[in-house]
Amino acid sequence: MTQTTVSAFVLALAVVFGAFGAHGLKDILDPYSISVYETGVRYHFYHALGMLAIPLLSKTGLVTEYAATWAFRLLALGIVFFSGSLYVLAISGVAILGAVAPIGGTAMILGWMMLAWGSMRSPNVP
After folding, report:
1. Mean pLDDT throughout 94-99?
2. Which residue among 27, 52, 67, 112 is least crowded, i.e. fewest CB within 10 A of its CB?
């Protein structure tokens, strides 16, 4: 599967999770839990859009292929750990799951830093 295909799938999941939160959970969860869930959806969308841009940056030579590959992987991992833990935390109320979110947040930060590093290493960036 290509990075574009994976990104499109991850974006589709963001829509599914967002719709589920808006329609399936609105009468079940308290306002705080809805807020936690919405934060997960928002970050899911942001980083999936970033994943979608990475193949374009790589193909145009604005980011090295190595950095693009790792940035993509780290953003995907960040979505799983950050957004995933927030989804489960909001629905289950198991507070310890909040401790997983920083792992995902760190992966997201590292993904963006890898993209920056890859653009600095690319000879095609003006």
Report:
1. 88
2. 27
